[in-house]
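does this look right to u?? AHM version
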Amino acid sequence: MAQKVSLTRYLVEQQRVDGSIPAQLRLLLEVVARACKSISMAVNKGALGGVLGSAESENVQGEVQKKLDIISNEVLIEANEWGGHLAAMASEEMDSIHLVPSRYPQGEYLLLFDPLDGSSNIDVNVSIGTIFSVLKKPDDHPGVQEADFLQAGAKQVAAGYCVYGPSTTLVLTVGDGVAMFTLDREQGSFVLTQENVQIPADTKEFAINMSNMRHWDAPVKRYVDECLAGKEGPRGKDFNMRWIASMVADVHRILTRGGIFMYPWDKREPEKAGKLRLMYEANPMAWLVEQAGGAATNGRQRILDLQPTKLHERVAVFLGSKNEVERVTEYHTGA
Ligand code: AHM
Ligand code: MG
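got this back:
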């Protein structure tokens, strides 16, 4: 039987092959993976662990926090504070950046995360996940400010997510393709289960929250109408629809068998560019999808090229199978 490759071994071997993973980054990724393992345990206990339900507080974006949102945030902070690999962290659940306390050594990386994405699915036992993005701290000044985080997604040095579903799977890129690791609960370690993940360029599956249809812009409506028209319509084929309402789970499906995921701008709150957050939701997912041969835009531009102006900035998202993302983007730009 082929030997199992643990996450640690995978990272060490990657480091040897092309030097793409400096030692501090390797430590960082292992620490994030360890934190995800703890979050997975808490999620898994569910009602038995007393972790379900609302925490009766709101985050900076005015969303009600669940107990597991807060627990996951704390797990990630505690795990990452002391290792000497980070300068600061930012999270969906915190208004401003979290500096590594001065009693610990300061590292050169910045970590951003959505500690538990898919909040509406926490209490109903549907897949949820942790999303993370790693940036290098600019080295032209001492200390860290929020502005140091405002780097385009193309500058990420690592990105990934961990989906807590029927199995717990960590999906990772350091810019050299996408690899998937499944948590072996008996061994307590992540084991490599897929390398060189590829998204087919074409698909017959789309994901969007259809209940918002009446609020969409014309290009999105056109794209979805044409999918719904099926074989008899301009696309000449039938489409299937899926919407899990956990971006991690929807993106995981797309990395596994293709598809397009859309969370467009809509007229409900026209001043917001979209629902999803650029820096710790869209950017890491966009990079993973591109690394797997797919595409990711905000309807007009490549997501990874967008220059963030604030930490919790929102963005419209179209990502997945390349030809479909290009089509819906062309409907926006008129190209
Ligand atoms: P969250 O970070 O508060 O959980 O919100 C993000 C989630 C995504 O995982 C998912 O794609 C989307 O919100 C679902 O939104 P909706 O409930 O509007 O369908
Ligand atoms: Mg989220």
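The radius of gyration is 19 Å. idk if thats expected tbh
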